[in-house]
Design goal:
The protein is an alpha/beta fold. It has 3 domains: 254 residues, 2-enoyl-CoA Hydratase, Chain A, domain 1, CATH 3.90.226.10; 176 residues, NAD(P)-binding Rossmann-like Domain (Rossmann fold, 3-Layer(aba) Sandwich); 144 residues, Orthogonal Bundle (N-(1-d-carboxylethyl)-l-norvaline Dehydrogenase, domain 2). Helices cover 48% and strands 13% of the residues. It binds (2S,3S)-3-hydroxy-2-methylbutanoyl-COA. Pathway: Lipid metabolism; fatty acid beta-oxidation. It is found in: Peroxisome. This is 3-hydroxyacyl-CoA dehydrogenase. One of its GO terms (molecular function) is NAD+ binding.
Length: 653
């Protein structure tokens, strides 16, 4: 039964049991409607407690029902039934109360939350706005500024913050149900219903207007964010019933939109990886992680593990490097503490789980070792040969290489079934994407352990086969090559970057290169020069910039010149581009932004199709996850393969 009801004296306890996250499915909605009627029909029931089994309160409407014709009772009807019930309901929240889950809770007369609970309205992340009264009830419980941030930002708040704001009436100490029973006993039924409360207007109209404008500007084309801002604004101005009707109309319009279909596609695709059969083995424990190399990547990986509660043993080539690595990791952790990602107590506890060494011996305690040294195959092979002798026989050995052959690395250890690729993206403690590179002879439980490790670090994991550049860097190289062709054909770096920003990328491909440093790719191009196909078009402009020492931001000039750290178009670069065009006899063409983006996206799609045809990626959703999580492809466009499917369907229609 998705919903059960049991009597506890003059209190009824309504329990939702709908794994994995108690989504408000059709069965749950029906069960709740019946519970409202049963409790209201029983004069002996004075209060009702709404709770959930399992790990969380209701995590929202059931996303899996979105593609089907909606079935009554609709969630707004259930929410209204609870709010208008004669018998007052109390929500006992643990885990997360999100979207429709929080809307159900706000229909109750009161809310009590476990101290580690989170409450939010993340609908904008699915291209929606709350569709069951969330935008109208929330500003009646919390200040308008908080409501606007929660609805348009889509991020949950913790129980303590929710309590301070007025969203929950109590934070339970100890047993949640017992605390809810105490609250029920003191509930009289005279408490105001949420919609009967006045809205909590903003403290200052001008700053509220500025907050709204800033949210809309940051949306970068995502319609749901602007719609969320307008919905909260309406709730502050209109009578509740009119605001509810307008919210529902806006919700239904967004639900039918391409952007919402795209965002729901990405949401489900990000979770599909871990349901891959190769991830179904039994994971090994990975409580203690060794990290080899404490440079930018190694330090970021170590920090990501520490922030996820793991123990880290970092190894560098000598004492001085180990000390420098320890300081690098510590400064990342201090920054995380300053940002409130960890509190001071956690920050201190992390320190006790971290050590840096100039020798391999401590790695005998590691369950998983991640090599993050520089990209030289011989050096990596030597490291793995050493790891083979110093680590436990069942310790998993991973390489963070971004393009080298993981099968070749695995061949250096006696048991290659314990070797896998874990390709992090820089900065490793921030970027969500993690490519799990699956070599030929790896064991299933090692892949399953990598998937469980990714989930523990809250990473978005994608399985990749072994090839040069795996999925992400292969596709990035392809569209970066196309961008080089574009500037030889007539565009300038600023044209390409503007087109990409207007498309929804956080930055363009040339700005990105200046940020990462042009010298890294230059070194790779020089390494590959001998094997490059002489018949393939080659653009030498980036090489010429590097020959002048223009490596990007770090040298004050690259594709752009940097004045006060701001990129400025540089006539010297334009002259260099003109000279290259002339040398090749290219008459520059005028390239409008949509033509630029068509070529950039097509380059992604054609390389992605090769990656799929070669079996390197399992499905088009993996490509979209890689491009949105790894390279800032706008999530509300769904990714290059989602776009291709829409284009192909349009052509077929
Ligand atoms: N509906 C259906 N299934 C869901 C779901 C949902 N809302 N949320 C998660 N799942 C599934 C997910 O697909 C996965 O399935 C499993 O649960 C574990 O998820 C009217 C219309 C709750 C914080 O946007 O943020 O309410 O792969 O791997 O990392 O206004 O899931 O195991 O088969 O993410 O512990 C609003 C979305 C909906 C919340 C848990 N709610 N979910 O994170 O586990 S719209 C959301 C999450 C709405 C109303 C509107 C997270 C989580 P499987 P997981 P997790």
């Amino acid at each position: 039964m998705a919903v059960t009801l049991e009597r506890d004296g003059d209190c009824a306890v309504v329990t939702i049991d709908n794994p994995p996250v108690n989504a408000a499915s059709h069965a749950v909605r029906q069960g709740l409607m019946e519970a409202v009627a049963t409790c209201d029909a029983d004069p002996a029931v004075r209060t009702v407690i709404l709770r959930c089994t399992g790990r969380t309160f209701v995590a929202g409407a059931d996303i899996r029902e979105f593609g089907q014709p909606p079935k009554e009772p609709h969630l707004p009807d259930v929410v209204a039934a609870i709010e208008t019930a004669d018998t007052p309901w109390i929500a006992a929240i643990h885990g997360t109360a999100l979207g429709g889950g929080l809307e159900l809770a706000m229909a109750c007369r009161a809310r009590i939350a476990a101290d580690d609970a989170k409450l939010g309205l993340p609908e904008v992340n699915l291209g929606l706005i709350p569709g069951a009264g969330g935008t109208v009830r929330l500003p009646r419980l919390v200040p308008a500024e908080t409501a606007l941030t929660m609805v348009a930002g889509g991020k949950p708040v913790g129980a303590a913050q929710a309590h301070r704001a007025g969203l929950v009436d109590e934070v339970a100490e100890g047993d949640l149900l017992a605390a809810a029973r105490d609250m029920a006993r003191s509930t009289t039924g005279d408490e105001p219903r949420t919609l009967e409360r006045p809205v909590r207007h903003p403290a200052d109209a001008d700053s509220f207007a500025a907050q709204k404008a800033k949210l809309i500007a940051k949306a970068r084309g995502q319609q749901s964010i602007e719609a969320a801002v307008h919905a909260v604004a309406r709730a502050l101005e209109l009578p509740a019933d009119e605001a509810l009707a307008a919210e529902r109309d806006a919700f239904l319009e967004l639900k039918a939109s391409d952007q919402s279909a795209a965002l729901r596609h990405i949401f489900m695709a990000e979770r599909a990886t871990l349901s891959d059969p190769r991830c179904k083995g039994r994971p090994h424990p990975f409580g203690t992680v060794g990290v080899i190399g404490g440079g930018t990547m190694g330090a970021g990986i170590a920090a990501a593990c520490l922030l996820s509660g793991l123990t880290v043993i970092l190894v560098e080539r000598d004492g001085e490097a180990a000390q420098a690595a320890h300081e690098r990791v510590s400064s990342i952790l201090d920054q995380s503490a300053r940002r409130g990602i960890v509190d001071e107590t956690m920050r201190a506890a992390i320190g006790n789980r971290f050590s840096a060494h100039d020798g391999y011996a401590p790695l005998s305690r590691a369950d998983l070792v991640i090599e993050a040294i520089f990209e030289e195959m011989d050096v990596k092979k030597a490291v793995f040969a050493t790891l083979d002798t110093v680590t436990k026989a069942d310790a998993i050995l991973a390489t963070n290489t971004s393009y080298l052959d993981v099968n070749a690395i695995a061949s250096t250890v006696a048991d290659p079934s314990r070797v896998i690729g874990l390709h992090f993206f820089s900065p490793a403690h921030i970027m969500k994407l993690l490519e799990i590179v699956v070599p030929d002879r790896v064991a299933d439980d090692v892949v399953a352990t990598a998937a469980a490790f990714a989930k523990r670090l809250r990473k978005t994991a994608v399985l990749s086969g072994v090839c040069d550049g795996f999925i992400a860097n292969r596709i990035m190289s392809a569209y970066r090559r196309e961008a080089d062709y574009l500037i030889e054909d007539g565009a300038l770096p600023a044209d390409v970057d503007r087109a990409m920003r207007d498309f929804g990328f956080p930055m363009g491909v040339f700005e990105m290169q200046d940020l990462a440093g042009l010298d890294i790719a230059w070194a790779m191009r020089k390494r590959r020069a001998a094997t490059r196909d002489p018949n393939e078009r080659y653009v030498a402009i980036a090489d010429k910039l590097c020959e002048q020492g223009r490596f990007g931001r770090k040298t004050g000039a690259g594709w752009y010149r940097y004045e006060d750290a701001k990129p400025v178009a540089d006539p010297e670069v334009t002259a260099l581009i003109d000279a290259e065009r002339a040398r090749k006899g290219i008459e520059p063409a005028s390239l409008p932004d949509d033509a630029i983006m068509d070529r950039i996206v097509s380059a992604m799609q054609s390389e992605a199709q090769k990656v799929l045809d070669e079996g390197i990626a399992s499905g088009p959703g993996d490509i979209d996850v890689v491009m949105t999580s790894g390279y800032g492809f706008p999530r509300w466009r769904g990714g290059p393969m989602f776009m291709k499917a829409r284009q192909d369907a349009g052509e077929r229609a």
